[in-house]
Amino acid sequence: MIKVVLILNHVQAGMGSDENALLAPGGKKSPIGPGMTLEPLIESFGGTIVATLYCGDRYFLENEAEVKKKFIGFSKKFEADAVLCGPAMHYPNFGKMCGSLAKAMNENGIPAIAAMSAENPATANYQHDIPIVKMPKKGGIGLNDSFKHMAQLVVAKGKLEDTARLEAEFCF
User: What is the C-alpha to C-alpha distance for residues 138 and 168, in angstroms, rounded to an integer?
Assistant: First the structure.
């Protein structure tokens, strides 16, 4: 079973709205937020969400080095085979957080992907550095397909499979 760590911002983790954008890093040893939808899909491809890490996206932007170090450490502690950052949809701060963390995970030997919409400024900034699964902005059409694509790609990354075909089909 491939061990997946999910990374969310404060909103996606159910920790409130903009008033909690400075939420310090935390985590749970279970899927939360969109992880509840992703878990059965990830399981169908041979994986499981072993933990959900989260923090406020403004906290991340103000403490990027610290959060990267903590989240890389937590991912190693949970023996993650792969990390899924997002889904960030069209939210710019969360997109920056997802892109930066996925890039850092990959640079530290932990396969990681992100998921966001074309409207997210972070998509253009990170699409040449990391796999970013295409998804609609909030309320858009195609959300179910993008969740399936996230699950399939993150598990394939965790299995260390050649993901070029999946990335060509699912990513920017």
Answer: 23
Residues in CB range of 74: below 8 A, 6 or more apart: 5, 27, 51, 53
Measured between alpha carbons, how far is 149 from 154 in angstroms, rounded to an integer? 8
Q: Given CA atoms 102, 106, 110, 111 in this order, what sign does their dihedral have?
A: positive
84-123 pLDDT tens trace: 999 999 999 999 999 999 999 999 999 999 999 999 999 9
C-alpha dihedral sign at 11, 36, 88, 106: positive
Q: Name the 3-class secondary structure at 89.
A: coil
> Amino acid identity of 157?
K
Torsion angles phi and psi, residue 80, rounded to 5: -65, 135
Residue pair 7/101 in contact by the 8 Å Cβ criterion: yes
pTM of the model: 0.97
- Residue 41 in contact with residue 151, Cβ under 8 Å? yes
